[in-house]
Design a protein that fits this description.
Elements (H helix, E strand, L loop, with lengths): L5 H25 L8 H28 L9 H34 L5 H6 L4 H19 L18 H27 L17
């Protein structure tokens, strides 16, 4: 993987996070026994946890064991903040999974009955997540500048107008793009069932 350029990792990260929400929504739906239960969502969390364990525990341990340049320096601060990053990622994954169920419950409580009406409440989830996350990331990076030995180094310089304008435009653009896609999915609705062909019984002798 060392031969992959930096922009290659950027594309892979974007692809991975871009398909995450649609995959987890469909997976949770397929694992649900009946509407209103949380078994499918819990099974989704379990599957995500197993994937995390393989990709974030097994693979790093193997690489640290076989490569000399993969030996880390086990610092307490690094362990704490890396662990907090893992917690943030896990909490985000769990919230994405349960956001769908909460949206469906809200739709039904509001009187929605058709699949299109119920799905209409879910179409805000992905646009809001992917519009909110980069805004928070940028704002946090403006004030938090950790340094070796000083994890809580805060400093703030008022940026030019292009930064806040860019944050708003990117967030708005991301929201509108994903929102338009979700609206198409909602209005399209489920595919109609295929007609069943009935073969007439042969005449009795």
């Amino acid at each position: 993987m060392s031969n992959i350029p930096w922009w290659g990792y950027v594309i892979l990260a974007g692809l991975s996070w871009g398909v995450y929400v649609p995959l987890i929504f469909f997976g949770g739906t397929e694992l649900t026994t009946r509407p209103g239960t949380i078994g499918g969502r819990l099974a989704s969390i379990l599957c995500v946890g197993i994937a995390y364990f393989v990709m974030a525990v097994v693979v790093p341990l193997i690489l640290m064991g076989v490569r000399e340049d993969a030996k880390p320096e086990w610092k307490t601060t690094g362990l704490i903040f890396s662990g907090l990053a893992g917690v943030a990622g896990a909490v985000g994954a769990i919230c994405v999974i349960f956001a769908s169920k909460a949206a469906v419950d809200t739709a039904k409580a509001g009187g929605a009955t058709t699949p299109q009406e119920i799905a209409a409440y879910r179409m805000y989830i992905a646009p809001m997540i992917f519009a909110l996350a980069p805004m928070i990331n940028t704002l946090l990076s403006l004030v938090w500048h950790p340094k070796p030995g000083d994890a809580f180094h805060f400093d703030f310089e008022i940026p030019g107008w292009k930064l806040p304008a860019g944050i708003v435009l990117v967030a708005l653009g991301t929201f509108l793009v994903l929102m338009s896609k979700e609206e198409v999915e909602v209005h399209k609705g489920p595919s109609p069932p295929k007609p069943v062909e009935v073969t007439p019984a042969p005449n009795a002798p």
